[in-house]
Amino acid sequence: MPRPPNALVTIVAALAALNWVHARAVRWAFQRNLARLWAGDPEPLLATYADDVRFCFPGRSSWAGDFRGKEEVARWLRRFVRVGLRFAVHEILVVGPPWDATLCLWFTDRLTDADGGVVYENRGTIMAKLTWGKIVAYEVNEDTQKVAALDAYLEEHGASAAAAGE
């Protein structure tokens, strides 16, 4: 007759199962909240941010900055929605316990013109730290030259001032 597993094996197996459930729940929530963002509603995604969230978007474009606090990040996200940028998510990875989780999202974002032609497309990653389901910090990494070209397109088409909320 097989011997029952020792307590350590049982605990490790239980923790692995909990980590899997946590990762699935975080991925599901992000997919749902991003779908709402693309539909024009950033509020569900903003609800997952800590009040003192830090968001870094590197580069020298009008999108770049080191944003601190939920309201600064909300302005950036609302601009994203106004401009009409959309993303395709290729992968969402979540590791770590709920009190210190890391999320990596691999995506392609794009903007199309009124005729459906692609005027901007970029691939990137988002690295985020989460504590008990709240995003406390994240950084977007993508080709910053393409983001600068997006600024030029928006300027050329008279969309930059309105899109920037000026």
Mean of residue pLDDT values? 90
- H/E element sequence: HHEEHEEEEHH
Sheet with the most strands? 6 strands, mixed
Q: Class by helix and strand content? A: alpha+beta
Q: Over all CA atoms, what is the radius of gyration?
A: 19 Å
Low-confidence stretches are: 161-166
Q: Provide the spatial order of strands within the biggest beta sheet.
A: 2-1-6-5-4-3
User: Quaternary state, please?
Assistant: single chain
- The top-level CATH class is Alpha Beta
Helix content: 40-55%
- For this structure, the CATH topology is Nuclear Transport Factor 2, Chain: A
N→C terminal distance? 75 Å
Which CATH architecture is right? Roll
Q: Proportion of β residues?
A: 25-35%
Give the overall shape: elongated
Q: Which keywords apply here?
A:
6-stranded mixed β-sheet, alpha+beta, elongated, disordered C terminus, single chain
Describe this structure in words.
- With 166 residues, this protein is an alpha+beta fold.
- Helices cover 40% and strands 35% of the residues.
- The chain has a single domain, classed as Nuclear Transport Factor 2, Chain: A (Roll).
- The protein contains five helices and six strands, in the order ααββαββββαα.
- It has a six-stranded mixed sheet.
- Strand 4 and strand 5 (118-131) form a beta hairpin.
- The model is unreliable at 161-166 (pLDDT under 50).
